[in-house]
Structures are given as structure tokens and as C-alpha cells.
Amino acid sequence: MTDGTGRAAFPPAPTGLGALSATEIMAGYRRKAFTPRDVVDDTIAALEAANRACNAVVTPMYEQARAEADRLTREMRAGEAKGPLAGVPVTIKDLVFVAGVPAYAGSPMNKSFVPEADAAVVSALKAAGAIITCKTTTCESGYKLTADSPVTGLTRNPWNPARTSGGSSGGAAAGVAAGCGPIAIGTDGVGSIRVPSSFCGVFGLKPTFGLVPRSPGFSPPSWASLAHTGPITRTVADAALTLEIIAGYDTRDAASLPVPSRRFDTTPGRLDGIRIGASADLGYAAVSADVCAAFGKALAILDSCGAQVTMDGPGLDPGILEHTLKPIAFTEQAAAVATKSPADLAGSEADYRNVVSAGRNYSGTDYIEASYRRGQVRSAFVKLFERVDVLVTPTVAVTAFEAGQIGVGSIDGSEVDPHLGWSPFTWPINLAGLPAATLPCGFDRDGLPIGLQIIAPWLDEPTIFRVAAAFEQAQPWAKFWPQVALSEKGRVGAQA
């Protein structure tokens, strides 16, 4: 992968154990090269340093993590440790419940809230032997595509701390990018896994809606019909391993799918026979020149891997944002705080209050009509997937903008909605409930990462992994590290 910025193609990688992939950590345990306590100590050191630079951690769980690492170390020495992620550090977004640990969700309304039960995804990770190190930052109730909140302040990008990490799973993506453990759990209602993963130069997967249960989830349950839970990692193999563990049926989640457990093959290979549809703008989006250039190069790489690439897309209505997404998303956000008074919302961001107010102004008819148009979005993708096996687009229309901004109002001279118009490729996929992943495919002229989005039919995560693994082999992005991850000792440090 080339970046066009003059930096070395493969800068030196951090030497801390927290920068290893999950598969590398597990291989190291099998060789007895290090212990879970060694890995956790290095990961905590990396988290502390990255938090100083990027503000990615809400609630440290370091003492619990060390205790669990010591237990697993003893079990490994006795030959008793079990679990596909035994001894692997994982971070959890602060919208997702961890029993006995505060879940602020970026909201002053939740300053005293401590859940009594683990979310299903957390229970699954614990059962697999994963070690939870901390809760990571999000925006207020996950309502926007940055991770700035009244509770935690700004979360910054490890590639350039003057820029945003993206969101709302911003702390999750920043931590993985900075070498603070190989796996983070995020949530995605309109792009909240894929946007920060794209901005931070890592792999992020939004599985099919309902494949990963959300219960008991976060209260209030904002973005109820749109939100997915999924992994953020540095490698395709780590994401596949994580999804194998966290996918599953849970009767507490009405949207949960009773799908049998699956194994995902991430062996890289040729893409002969794969029909890839490609759209640089979905027919209506403004996209920056740097993103367009990187997307074009990514298509050439997919073609070189043997895929049949054609310019094609779902033909969506250009008014989809105003007439379909907003009436659904804003109404669901308002419904989540329907019992809250103006006094309850007084500590919230003004923009969050505006979104809630807008949601309250939509009628039930508006919501039902938008839901009908949502069905048309799904139908458009059904027809598209009769012609192609996957669709690829840019992940985000721009690269990371200034930290503290909610978004950008124009792209290369074209005006866009500052909340969601600069991410036109992510939220249509939430409306359809489709699986989608983002993977790094280049850098802009300022050295900031650019993402490629891969979208597949419902429950066809295997094809996403196949395409992503081939691209990863052709352009191995995990060898690129942000400066925040490269201290004089090879650990994470605040070298912005």
C-alpha cells in the first residue's frame, strides 16, 4: 500500500504485546513465549499512553484485567486454560453493558447508572476467555458520528490528534489503531463502527442486523431498528474469530436471528468468479478527490485479484437522508428519552437536544411512511444482489476532520448535511440491515487513512471475509502504524 505522503511504506511496528493480533497472541501462548499477564501489562501501558494522547478510555478495568490475566496464566501453566480467546485483551464500547461497571454512554443522564448484567456479547467474550480491559468512549447515546461527549470530552485520532477519531465507536477504533489490544467491540446505528474504523485505519465489521444480539443492550435503546454490534480489529482473521464467538441467538433481543453458529474462512486467495459491483457515489453523494482516487486504486487491486468488477449500484433515491433515515433515526432517538424532562436533558449537548426535538416533531404517519420507503431501499439491494455478489463503495466521503466538529458542511465545494451528508455510504446499509465491513485502502495527502466498504447480501459475511482477505494480502494495511503508536520504546505514546 502506498500513501502518497512520503512516509516509509512500512514504518517500524510497536514492540509492545498489546500491538499483536489476537491470532499472534494465541500463537505466542502456545509457544510459551509470554503469559496473559505479560500481554495485559503491555496492553494497559498502551491504553494509558494512548488515552493521554487521544482520550479513548471511559472506565479502566485494569485491576480486574490483571487479576483475570493472573488466573489464566496459572491455568496455562497447568495446561488447563480453555477458550478460543483465552488471554486476549478486548475493549468494550460504553454503550454495551458490563455488569458492575458504569455505562455512561456519553450522557450526563446516566452518571449513576451501573448495569447488573452483562450484554450477551460480553458474556460470550468472557466465556471464550477474553480479558476485558476497559470501556471506551462514545458520543452521547451514540447519536452522531464522532465520539465527543459531555461526559468524556473529545476523542482524538491517533494518526493526528488534531483530527477526530470518528464515532460513535471512536474510542474503540482509536485504541485498536494505537496498538492497545487487538479487538474492540463497537456498535453501529448509522455507521458508528465503520466511520471511526475508516478514520483510524483499521478493520471494522457491521454484521447482518440481528446476527449479534444486543440484549440487554443500553438504556435508553436509541436507534432501536438500526443498531448493530460488531468487532473492530487490525486484521480480517481477528474480526472473523470474534464474530464466530459473539454471533448467536438471544431471546432477550426481539431482533436476534436464530442462525446456527458458523466458522469463517479468512484464508487469502483469488477472487475468480466473484462479481463485484462498485459505486463511487451511489448516484448522489459528494466525495472528496482523495477518497475517489483511493477508491479507484482499490478497484484495480480487486480486479488484479481476479474479481469481475463492474460499475453498478442499488439506484437509491437521492432524498433518502431527509425522507427515510431522519424520520426513523431521529424519532427512535426521541422515543428513547420520551420520559425525560427538559431538566433531565439540560446537561446534554445542544445538538443532541436538537435531534431529540426534531424527532418529537415527526408524526407517527411520518415514521410509517419512512418505514415504507425503507422497504424500497431493501428491495433495491435485493435487485442489485441478483447482478453482483458484493457491492463496494468508499466507506466515508472524507477523511478525518478537525476534532470537535460534528462533521463537514461541504466537500470540494458541494454542500452536504453536516451531520450525515459526509457519510453517505454507511447509513443506507443500516436501513437495509445488510452486513458491511470497512478496510483500509490508502491515505489522503495529509497522511490520514481512507476506507473501502464491502457490502454483502443478508447473512453473507463469508463473502465479505473472502474479499477482505484477498485485499489484505494484496495490500497489507496492518503494517502501517500511526505516530501515536510509535514511542521510543515501541509502545504507544503521545507523539503526535
From TrEMBL:
This is Amidase. It comes from the Bacteria. InterPro entries: Amidase, Amidase_dom, AS_sf. It comes from Bradyrhizobium campsiandrae. Pfam families: Amidase (PF01425). Residues 38-464 form the Amidase domain. Belongs to the amidase family.
